[in-house]
Specification:
It is a single chain. The chain is an alpha/beta fold. The protein folds into 2 domains: 30 residues; 299 residues, Aldolase class I (TIM Barrel, Alpha-Beta Barrel), CATH 3.20.20. The chain has 12 helices and 10 strands. An 8-stranded parallel β-barrel has the order 1-4-5-6-7-8-9-10, surrounded by 7 helices. Bound molecules: the ligand NCc1[nH]cc(CCC(=O)O)c1CC(=O)O and zinc ion (2 copies). The site of the ligand NCc1[nH]cc(CCC(=O)O)c1CC(=O)O has 11 residues, from helix 7. Homooctamer. Its cofactor is Zn(2+). This is Delta-aminolevulinic acid dehydratase.
Length: 370
């Protein structure tokens, strides 16, 4: 290499380096003016990441965080004392007789289970009739389970679902006229008697899920008349929608209607206004808690319930079909079971629920830890 070409090579490299230096210093000065202009203009609203960079600060972004006290676990109580049958369409969920209840629940109570909701399942031949007589049979599974659980787990909060469909031969949620339609007056009278029987047996909460008109008022009046209104919570399934998400429950409870469907008393899925009317009506009739069911498909209704019932707890029922779908999706590899269960619960809480009825309760007791 000649001397002159060496000189020009060094000069070139120097100028490249100068170029680079000037680029760096321009970038620095841009950054510093940008930083200055942020503080000068006060445009700090574009900076969000700092608020959720840590797991704890992410948790703080939620208005409501799931706690064990928010969860109610559904139990299917068979009239066969030794039964313990897995429900094929409801993964990990069993129908259990009275003799199987305490051994099953003991570890869950130790893990922090606070509340259960009871559904009776009469299996014995002839246990079902047109009036749902077995619903409030003092020797029936629900009343015996209430007594047993109160005795065995003094701190467990017992909710009794009140309906006739598990106990009627026709599988509808009330007493029928000759033409097969619901006789509302007779149904309300019968359902409020059943609610009274559960409350008298010691249920902390009665939860009518039948959707007959006027049943909240009727139950409240009977509770007052009996002098126990001050110690029983009345939780209304106010906004209960008809649809295809109750299938696995009906397998578990054997409560599929033998003819027709429930569209004349459960709400039509598009009926947001109707749901608002039902919620307002039940608040006026004396409900202590409003429930929305199903949950994830009806988040707007949960948020309406929170607005209309802003002074009361709002419950959401993550129903059997929602639970089965999450299991099926996880099994198909679409998502992780726990991640999806947690995400749905967050949606339900975000919408406004403060209580969640869920078949995932045992899992959440583990996931929430101590
Ligand atoms: N009226 C009884 C009742 N209470 C709760 C559910 C559904 C719960 C679930 O699907 O998990 C049902 C069944 C129905 O209305 O058909
Ligand atoms: Zn019913
Ligand atoms: Zn009908």
């Amino acid at each position: 290499m000649s001397f002159s070409s060496l000189v020009s090579d060094i000069a070139n490299r120097n100028s490249e380096r100068d170029d680079m230096r000037s680029q760096v210093s321009r970038a620095r000065s841009y950054a510093s003016t940008a930083a200055t202009s942020v503080s000068i203009s006060g445009d700090i609203s574009s900076q969000l990441h700092g608020g959720y960079s840590h797991p704890l600060s992410r948790a703080w972004q939620a208005e409501r965080q799931l706690t064990k006290s928010m969860l109610i676990y559904p139990l299917f109580i068979s009239d066969q004392p030794d039964e313990e049958t897995l429900i094929p369409s409801l993964p990990n969920i069993h129908r259990r007789g009275l003799n199987k209840l305490i051994p099953y629940l003991t570890p869950l109570v130790q893990k922090g289970l606070k509340s259960v909701i009871l559904f009776g399942v009469p299996i014995a031949p002839g246990a079902k009739d047109a009036l749902g007589t077995s619903a409030d049979d003092p020797k029936g599974p629900v009343i015996r389970a209430i007594r047993l659980l109160r005795r065995q787990f003094p701190d467990l909060f017992i909710v009794a679902d009140v309906c006739l469909c598990e106990y009627t031969s026709h599988g509808h949620c009330g007493i029928l006229r000759e033409d097969g339609s619901l006789n509302n007056a007779l149904s309300v009278d019968r359902i409020s008697d059943v609610a009274m029987a559960y409350a008298t047996a010691g249920a902390h909460c009665v939860a009518p899920s039948d959707m007959n008109d006027g049943r909240i008022r009727a139950i409240k009046l009977k509770l007052i008349e009996a002098g126990i209104a001050h110690q029983v919570v009345l939780m209304s399934y106010s906004a209960k929608f008809s649809g295809c998400l109750y299938g696995p429950f009906r397998d578990a409870a054997g409560s599929c209607p033998s003819f027709g469907d429930r569209r004349c008393y459960q709400l039509p899925p598009g009926g947001r206004g109707l749901a608002r009317r039902a919620i307002k009506r039940d608040i006026n009739e004396g409900a202590d808690i409003i429930m929305v069911k199903p949950a994830s498909q009806y988040l707007d209704i949960i948020s309406d319930a929170k607005e209309l019932g802003k002074d009361m707890p709002v419950a959401a029922y993550q129903v059997s079909g929602e639970y089965a779908m999450i299991h099926a999706g996880a099994k198909a590899g679409v998502f992780d079971l726990r991640a999806m269960a947690e995400e749905t619960l967050q949606g339900i809480l975000r919408a406004g629920a403060t209580i969640v009825v869920s078949y995932f309760t045992p899992e959440f007791l583990d996931w929430l830890g101590n």
